[in-house]
From TrEMBL:
GO biological process entries: negative regulation of cell adhesion; positive regulation of axonogenesis; regulation of cell migration; regulation of cell shape
Spans through the membrane: 253-273
Domain IPT/TIG intervals: 42-145
Protein name: IPT/TIG domain-containing protein
A Gene Ontology molecular function term of the record: semaphorin receptor activity
UniProt key word Chloroplast: no
Keyword Transmembrane helix: yes
UniProt xrefs under Gene3D superfamilies: GTPase Activation - p120gap, domain 1
GO cellular component: plasma membrane; semaphorin receptor complex
Origin species: Bambusicola thoracicus
Coiled-coil ranges (or none): 270-319
Length: 684
């Protein structure tokens, strides 16, 4: 209590929030103050930031709470304690560095305490008049951590050649932010850009500052110190030396040396840019002209291709209308669908149904077959018979196909009964797949008799539809694709084509070719020629196939001759030459021979070719001897038939050059001055 003009007293505790009267006793006199004194709620702390500080202190702690307007004095107290030798050792630190911002916010400066705060149990308390409040919230309390450590500069001097100064240390950002940390170069601040746990980067002043006045006596070469300040503690890491090499050059030399090259470079760049622009414009006009020409050529080509396509479509339509759709008769169709190809062909017993049975056993076998036919009409017998066969391990997939096809033929006249048998077997098959929990695998492969029966049954049902509806568009599609593929080169070995619809069968090589139209005469086929379109890159076998396809288009395909069974003869004027894939004129490439083409024989557009049946088979050409030049030979065929004298034979063509003799020599083996025996192939 203080006395004077004013009486100051300290209030005591009150457990209630209320207004009370004030009574003052002076000696024996009791005076009642007319104004009541009010007790309010104790102040509280709702939050504080930051939550920690280095042990050296000096970090601003912003405390937010309620009831601060009633407080007359604030102070901060830190209580540290730890057990030592069985006793509790404690230390207390008190400070009054407080700034009141408003009625709800107060800023404290953290107190400097022990150097090893991790070894103590520290409690931070705010003293508000005589009321003590621990600084904590629901999740954490205010803590202290040990001061960071910095590494001094090497040799005490930092060469400043980059824009940033780097200071290394540890625990730098444990209780400090980039906004709170401070760095100085001499008296000038160093703007901190980055602060991590181990590095501090700051941007120094552009010009080397002067050292602090109080340190000039101690500085070497008058260099400023680099100082880092965290809170109340400072670290002097060394001195900073700026790179002054550029500044040593006079300004009147720097400007000409920099500006003149820059102006020259700009002028040269403008000139080059204009030249490049003019060149690019000329190139653009050139390319534009080329594109216009290309567009024109593409346009003309499209018109020509479209016209050719329309003509080809009309020709194809006329050919199909003239020749008709080649549809197999029902028996041939079923024979090919039901039975696999056999070496016996149409004479296979599966197709003819004629058994080679001795006459003595014929009656017994026929009686047994009739009885077996009666058993097939029994549904229970037939189903059990099929199950029994399928359970046999020796009953292979091929045998199942034959059995199902034979059963289809046997019951062909009773399709309703056949369908009932197939339906019963299918229901059993479905139950098996359902039990095995693999219904999606059903009908993937024909592993059972009933699946093959279903295939045969669908073939029977589809025949009339294929004949009346689907056959014609499918055949037209086949002819169109075949025509399109044959318009370009086709590899005779790999079967790759330029105009294929399958990308895997696309011919990658760019082959130059020309379309030719040849006139074909057929031996013993009249005097009229048939024009056939071929390519000069076609092999002889491919030419034969195109000729056969065109000449015999009105006949069934089964009556067409094979390409291997016919010979092709070219008559360039008065001479004749047999064309073949391989002969003595074939070009060799190492161990390989190139297959002959029309280009190899130099066959031109409008050439005349003769198609005839092949005579006696030729021996392999590798056994033939190449005799260069021209040799006079006695052709026995010519002497006997034409009554001619010895003829001159050209070994490269291996043909008798006499116009009346159309004989091809098969082999020539001569010794000087001696005529050899000649084996001749006739039939031309």
């Amino acid at each position: 209590t203080e006395f004077g003009d004013e009486i100051v007293c300290v209030t005591g505790r009150n457990s209630k929030v209320e207004a009370v009267g004030v009574t003052m006793q002076y000696g024996g006199t009791k005076i009642v103050v007319p104004v009541q004194f009010s007790y309010s709620e104790n102040p509280t702390v709702t939050k504080f930031k930051p939550i920690n500080s280095f042990s050296s202190g000096g970090r601003n702690i912003t405390v937010t709470g309620t009831g601060f307007e009633l407080i007359q004095s604030f102070s901060l107290m830190v209580h540290a304690e730890r057990p030592e030798s069985g006793k509790l050792s404690s230390k207390t630190f008190v400070g009054n560095c407080v700034t009141r911002l408003n009625e709800t916010t107060v800023v404290f400066s953290s107190l400097p305490i022990l150097e090893d705060p991790e070894n103590y149990n520290i409690t931070t308390i705010i003293l508000m008049d005589h009321y003590q409040l621990v600084v904590k919230n629901e999740s954490h309390s205010f803590t202290y951590v040990a001061d960071p450590t910095f590494e001094n500069f090497t040799d005490g001097i930092k060469k400043q050649v980059n824009k940033l100064i780097n200071a290394k240390g540890s625990n730098l950002n444990k209780a400090m932010t980039i906004d709170e940390a401070q760095a100085f170069v001499g008296d000038e601040p160093c703007n901190i850009k980055t602060l991590t746990e181990t590095d501090l980067y700051c941007e120094p002043p552009e010009v080397q500052p002067q050292p602090k006045k109080r340190q000039k006596r101690d500085m070497i070469n008058n260099l400023p110190e680099f100082i880092v300040k965290f809170g109340l503690r400072e670290w002097v890491l060394g001195r900073v030396e700026y790179d002054t090499r550029v500044s040593d050059i006079p300004l009147n030399l720097i400007l000409p040396l920099v500006l003149i090259p820059m102006i020259a470079i700009i002028i040269i760049s403008i000139i080059c840019y204009r030249r490049k622009s003019q060149q690019a414009e000329r190139e653009y006009e050139k390319i534009k002209s080329q594109l216009e020409g290309l567009e024109e050529s593409v346009r003309d080509r499209c018109k020509k291709e479209f016209t050719d396509l329309m003509i080809e479509m009309e020709d194809q339509t006329n050919e199909i209308n003239e020749a008709g759709i080649p549809v197999l008769d029902y028996k041939t169709y079923t024979d090919r669908v039901f039975f696999l190809p056999s070496k016996d062909g149409e004479k296979d017993v599966m197709i003819t149904g004629k058994l080679d049975i001795p006459e003595a056993r014929r009656q017994t076998v026929e009686q047994a077959l009739n009885q077996f036919s009666n058993l097939l009409n029994s549904k229970s017998f037939l189903i059990n018979f099929i199950h029994t066969l399928e359970n046999q391990r020796e009953f292979s997939a091929r045998a199942k196909v034959y059995f199902a096809s034979l059963l289809t033929v046997a019951l062909h006249g009773k399709l309703e009964y056949y369908t009932d048998i197939m339906r019963t077997l299918f229901l059993e098959l479905m139950e098996q797949y359902v039990v095995a929990k693999n219904p999606k695998l059903m009908l993937r492969r024909s592993e059972t008799v009933v699946e093959r029966m279903l295939s045969n049954w669908m073939s029977i049902c589809l025949y009339q539809y294929l004949k009346d509806n689907a056959g014609e568009p499918l055949y037209k599609l086949f002819k169109a694709i075949k025509h399109q593929v044959e318009k370009g080169p086709v590899d005779a070995v790999l079967k790759k084509a330029k105009y294929t619809l399958n990308d895997t069968g696309l011919l990658g090589d760019d082959v130059e070719y020309t379309q030719l139209t040849v006139n074909v005469y057929v031996q013993d086929g009249g005097t009229d020629s048939t024009p056939v379109k071929v390519l000069n890159c076609d092999t002889i076998s491919q030419v034969k196939e195109k000729i056969i396809d065109q000449v015999y288009r009105n006949l069934p395909c089964s009556q067409w001759p094979k390409a291997e069974s016919v010979a092709l003869e070219w008559r360039p004027g008065s001479t004749a030459q047999i064309l073949s894939d391989l002969d003595l004129t074939s070009q060799r490439d190492g161990r390989w021979k190139r297959i002959n083409t029309l280009m190899h024989y130099n066959v031109r557009d409008g050439a005349t070719l003769i198609l005839s049946k092949m005579g006696i088979s030729q021996q392999p050409e590798d056994n033939q001897q190449d005799v260069p030049g021209e040799i006079s030979l006695t052709c026995t065929f010519c002497i006997e038939q034409c009554q001619l004298k010895p003829l001159t034979v050209c070994q490269s063509k291996r043909l008798c050059t006499e116009r009346k003799c159309k004989t091809m020599f098969r082999d020539v083996a001569l010794k000087p001055g001696i005529a050899s025996t000649l084996l001749l192939i006739h039939g031309f």
